[in-house]
Design goal:
Blueprint (H helix, E strand, L loop, with lengths): L1 E5 L3 H13 L3 E5 L2 H10 L4 E5 L7 H10 L6 E5 L4 H9 L4 E4 L4 H16 L6 E4 L2 E4 L4 E4 L2 E3 L3 H12 L7 H7 L11 H14 L7 E4 L3 E4 L2
């Protein structure tokens, strides 16, 4: 399991990194909310452990920004603020769990493992949302604002992958492997064709384009 620890207290962060590493977890540290947001958007984490009170960007703002971008990675808030209103604020901001400082390390580890299991098991999303774009994985309906968007099966798969990685740069290699299940470059323009079709369907007629081309990197879906 890979965990991002967003904590401005370097001593506390070092203690978590050491203890969770000994428990077999792969941990990465970010020292404030801005760095944490950037790291989380790069993806690949199973659980985020986020302190509430931090410089530059507080934990609530960081998680709200992630959720608005469509990222649903489980979040455990850590905070010395332990009143009911504080816990409610954390959950409303998009947190999945809330642990008050000081805490027992065994409880921290157990809660992280529980969030990781929840993500790996039946907690799969059935509704993806990035900005005003929504995808229902059960009805396979896509809508932007009030307009329904008709997608071909491969376009649907492509958009689903982009929505699950909203705000992140997705490379051509990633799309070939995850959407087309190619583990080699077929040397065709199949991605360009589908991206062009998808862009025309989800962006045309709307004030703000969402599907961006990242020069030299790939593509990004951004609210």
């Amino acid at each position: 399991m890979k965990v991002l620890i967003v904590e401005d207290d370097l001593e506390a962060a070092a203690s978590m990194l050491r203890g969770l590493g000994e428990a077999g977890l792969i941990c990465v540290h970010a020292a404030d909310g801005v760095l944490g947001l950037d790291a989380a958007r790069d993806g690949g984490f199973d659980v985020l452990v986020v302190d509430r009170m931090m410089p530059n960007m507080d934990g609530l703002s960081m998680v709200e920004a992630l959720r608005q971008g469509g990222d649903q990675t489980p979040v455990l808030f850590l905070s010395a603020l332990g009143e009911i209103d504080d816990r409610v604020a954390g959950l409303k901001a998009g947190g999945d769990d809330y642990l008050v400082k000081p805490y027992a390390f065994a409880e921290l580890s157990a809660r992280i493992e529980a969030l990781g299991r929840r993500r790996d098991s039946g907690g799969m999303q059935t509704l993806l949302k990035v900005g005003d774009l929504e995808m229902d994985l059960i009805s396979r309906m896509v809508r932007r604002q009030t307009q329904e968007i008709d997608l071909q099966p491969r376009e649907f798969q492509l958009l689903e992958y982009l929505m699950r990685h909203a705000g992140q740069s997705v490379t051509r290699t990633m799309l070939l492997e995850k959407v087309w299940e190619y583990h080699f470059d077929p040397q065709t323009n199949v991605i360009d064709v589908h991206i062009s079709r998808l862009r025309a369907k989800i962006d045309k007629g709307f004030d703000r384009p969402m599907l961006q081309t990242v020069r030299g990197a790939g593509y990004r879906l951004d609210a």
